[in-house]
Each structure stands twice: as C-alpha cells, then as structure tokens.
Amino acid sequence: MLKIAFTLLFIFSTSSFAADLSTYQDFGEKPGLTKVVDDLMVNLLANEKTRPFFEKADQVHIKEKLVEQFCVQIDGPCTYTGQTMKKAHKGHDIDTSEFYALVEALQESMNKNKIPQRAQNKLLAKLAPMHKDIINK
Amino acid sequence: MIKFSLLFIFLTLSNAFAIDTSGKLLLTGGVSQIEGAAGGGLTPWAFIGGYGTKDQIAANAFYTNVNITDYRLETFGALIGILDRAEISVAKQTFDTEDVGRLLGLGSGFKIRQNIFGLKVKIIGDGVLDQDSWLPQISFGAQYKKNLMGEVVKSLKATEDHGLDTYLTATKIILSQSILVNATLRRTKANQLGILGFGGDGNDKYKYEMEGSLAYLICRNLAVGFEFRSKPDNLKVAREQNWSDAFLAWAPTKNISITTAYTTLGNIALKDDQKGFYNSIQIGF
Ligand code: HEM
C-alpha cells in the first residue's frame, strides 16, 4: 500500500518538472487566459458575495490586469502593469470568505475552460499567498 | 445521555450561527477521522473542521463504519469549528466483537462502547493559503476517551477505562504539486483507540506515536491518499500493530463528503491480519 502511494506521488511530482512554458501553454496562452478571466468575471458578478465588489468597478480594466498578472504568475511572456495587490485592494474591506469565493469563481472558470488540474493548482499556489495583501477585514 | 444532549446543543448552536459558512475550499476542512477530529480517516489534521473562516462557526456530523475481517467499528459524531481557530468534537464508538466475542468469553456479538470528547486548537500557520512558505499549519489537540465497558477491558488486563490522548499535528497543502502532507505526534496509552481500555500488563506508560497522511488532490473535490498510524502495544493477551489505509475522499457538494478507504489494522484481540473497508459520510451545517 505504501509503495503504491509513493510511486503514485513520484509519478505525479516528477511530471511537473517539465519545460518552463508548460503551464502557460496548459492555459492556452494569451487567448486561453483571456477566456478564463472573462468567465471569472462572469462568475464574480453572479456570486452574491463578490458581486458588490465588482459590479461598479471598471471590469474591462480589471480583466486586462488580471490577464497580465496570471500570465506573469505562470511564467508566461508578459509584464504586469497594474497596481500592487495591497494598493488595489486597500479600503475594500475584503474578508477571508470573500477571498475564497473569488478563488472558487476562478476554479469554476478554469474547469469550464478545461485547464488541467495541475496547471490550475500552480496558478492558485501563486495567488494564495496574496491573501496577506488582499484580505483586510 | 449527556453526550447526546451536548451533541444536540452543538447542532442547535451551530444552526443558529451558521448563517454563512461557505468560507473554505472543498475538502480543506478535512473529513472526520475515526475519533471525531477533522483529518484523514485515521489521523487528525491541523485544519479546523467545517467550512467556517475566521469570522464563522461551522459544524458537521459524521457516521463511519469500519468493517474488518472479524469485527465492526461504528462511530457517530459531530464537531464544531470556531472562527477557524478551535474545534470541539464528540464521538460515540461501538465495537462489535461479532463471533470473537464468544472466544473472549463475552458472548457472540458483544459490543464495546466508548465516548470521545475532542478539542483542537490551531497554533500557527495556514496550510492552505500560505503557499509561499514551507511552514505548515500546526495545531494542538486532546481527546478524552471513556470506555463504557470498564469491567470487560480490565478483565483483559487493561489498567484504566479512560485516558487522555494529546497530539501535535502539522498539515500542509503543497498546491503547486497538488499534494497534502500531514504528520501527527500523539501521546497515548489507548489500546486499539481505547476500545480495549488504556494501559495494561505489558506497558502502562503514555507513549509517543507517529501518524501521517499523504494525499494527492486529483481535482478540487476529490483526493486520494495513504495514511499510517503507529500504535502502542500494552496488553499481553492482545497484541496491537500499526495501522494503515489507502483512501479516496470525495466532496460532491460543500455539505457532503464521502470517504472510502481500505484499512489494514493488523492484529486485534486474538485475531490476526484484520483488514477491510472504511466508509464514512460527513454532513456539514
Ligand atoms: C488572489 C486573489 C486576487 C487577485 C490576484 C486580484 C487581482 C487584482 C488585480 C490585478 C486588480 C487590478 C489592479 C489595478 O487596477 O491595477 C484588482 C482589482 C480589484 N480587486 Fe482584486 N484580486 C484578488 C482578490 C480580490 C478579492 C477577493 C476581491 C473582493 C472580493 C477583489 C476586489 C477587487 C476590486 C474591487 C478591484 C478594483 C479596485 C479599484 O479599481 O479600486 N480582489 N484585483
């Protein structure tokens, strides 16, 4: 039983040391990321927890910055030109459950766009620590 | 009776407060381990049970059935997670000796019952969000166990019918690799969880035991993994061995999680090589 578990883990973990652009490619590069972010915004506006934050915001602008930022986080060939997370979310009173609601909205969008699970988790691993700058309630 | 009224109070309380408890990600509240704490199947995790966040109170109830070669262990329980900081749990176990009861002189189908009260407090870390550091989430916990068949377990040469397990547990999700790692250090003198009493003629001191879980997160509501739990061996008449299992945990919705495992529990009271299926369902409020 132990052997099976470790072999499985080994297979899963080695498969992640592949080429640098692989996660970016798993996301379907710029067009794929744009779709993921478009659907993310649709989900954010549909969810009663996150809607109040985004319905009056400049959605086109936020989506553009999110695409850049996600792209950078998965080692794609992009530059992030937006504000720091601390600055962007300052004064928005975001709590933990709203943060997780956004993460789920993102997961749903990634699932809808058939992004492989490992690539999804790679992006989430980069985004999760940002909670320190985003959750301020 | 006291336990049931407590359970009832928990459930009522949690209903009153659980206005909005969709805080955490699926499965990150853990499932209910065999003694009632949030964790894997066999071992507690550092995560606080329920999907509540630091401003929420969440609760869940579970039923677990472990059907092994010669015995059956049923556990009912509930827990409440408070502000993602503390967890209080209760569990009621019934161990059916089936045919072995006769060999033990207790009568076929004799049942040993035990109650467990648990408390867990998060000390440091966020095993889910802090993906930029190696620091796991670390919690401290205690499980007070009271065996209701004191006479019986003492006749097997256990010294006590009650005991207090304490444990330190560390859990980390490594999202970039889609894995969950857990290690638990437990101080205990419980024989087979306490079903066969506490301490005994072979050893009567508290000992430190190691437990661990390793899981692969297949997708956001499905995890597959492996667990290990080392055990003390205190009774001369009934050898005790280490436990392990391979499990599949599935959360079809935020309120329900289902765990199926194949467990290998070694020798249990006269009978060697006990193994079989562990099935558990947990419902959140
Ligand atoms: C890991 C999670 C998150 C990431 C990566 C993220 C990223 C971003 C980015 C890149 C921007 C645009 C910054 C700019 O204008 O230059 C932004 C803006 C914004 N975000 Fe987030 N965000 C996250 C979580 C959240 C959450 C949980 C909420 C609320 C529920 C939220 C609400 C907002 C709002 C309201 C704005 C617009 C701010 C403004 O224009 O004043 N964000 N976010």
What does this protein look like?
The complex is a heterodimer of chains A (137) and B (285). Chain A has 137 residues and is mainly alpha-helical. Chain A has a single domain (30-134), classed as Orthogonal Bundle (Globin-like). Chain A is 67% helix and 0% strand. Chain A is built from nine helices and no strands. Chain A has helices at residues 2-14, 22-26, 29-46, 51-54, 59-73, 85-89, 96-112, 117-127, 131-134. In chain A, helix 3 crosses helix 5. Chain A is globular and about 35 Å long. In chain A, 31% of the residues are buried. The model of chain A is unreliable at 14-18 (pLDDT under 50). Chain B is globular and about 55 Å long. Chain B has 285 residues and is mostly beta strands. Chain B has a twelve-stranded antiparallel beta barrel with strand order 3-4-5-6-7-8-9-10-11-12-13-14. A two-stranded antiparallel sheet of chain B has the order 1-2. Chain B is 9% helix and 51% strand. Chain B contains three helices and 14 strands. Chain B has a single domain (2-284), classed as monomeric porin ompg (Porin, Beta Barrel). At the A-B interface, helix 1, helix 7 and helix 8 of A face strand 10, strand 11 and strand 12 of B. Bound molecules: protoporphyrin IX containing FE (HEM). Protoporphyrin IX containing FE binds at residues 50, 53-54, 57, 61-62, 65-66, 69, 82-83, 88-89, 92, 94, 98-99, 102, 127, 130, 134 of chain A.
